[in-house]
Design goal:
Elements: E1 18-19, E2 24-26, H1 32-40, H2 55-72, E3 76-81, E4 85-94, E5 104-109, H3 118-133, E6 138-144, H4 148-156, E7 160-161, E8 167-168, E9 180-187
Antiparallel strand pairs: 1-2, 2-3, 3-4, 4-5, 6-9, 7-9, 8-9
Helix pairs in contact: 1-2
Amino acid sequence: MPADTKGPLPGAFSIPELRTERLLLRAPRESDIEAAFVMNGDAQNMRYYPQPLTREENDAWMRRIPESWQKYGLGRWVVEVPGVTAFIGVAGLDRPAWDPSFVELAWRLTPVAQGKGYATEAARAACRFAFETLGLETLAAFTAASNTPSQRVMERLGMTRDPAADFDHPNVPDGHPLQRHVLYRLQWQGTMRTSC
């Protein structure tokens, strides 16, 4: 029997939905895997990563989303623009495998969705979920030092760069021009609203 392309990926039933003014953050479906490959397999879109993902790497990347929710109680969502397009990317929370001691705020959008404020809007929803629902106190975000568009999103969210915490990404080969990463942080302000 063929896979139900409309149905959620295995293990994704418990992922909560978030809604913003323009977006729906939801559990991934089987049909999102191909859309994600168009995003992750595009060399220009992946220019701030060592290389585009292969189809196998993309499929595994998408299937890790519900696994993260099951393991940590947090993870990423597929980002949809209801009534416009079912997939514009992925955004949310992550515990990096190489250092699960902190929670990362992350996003990756398709080329046609960039430059419209969607990354900031989706990340802001994930940020509020982290602080107000999960009770986290600190979020981090990082990217290649040359990735100024993502750094601008971090700044719009009220995140602050910590130059002393910049690092060489352990999953990027030594000497690669994208190895050096910058790190931003956002601290929960108690009852005071953060900019996220």
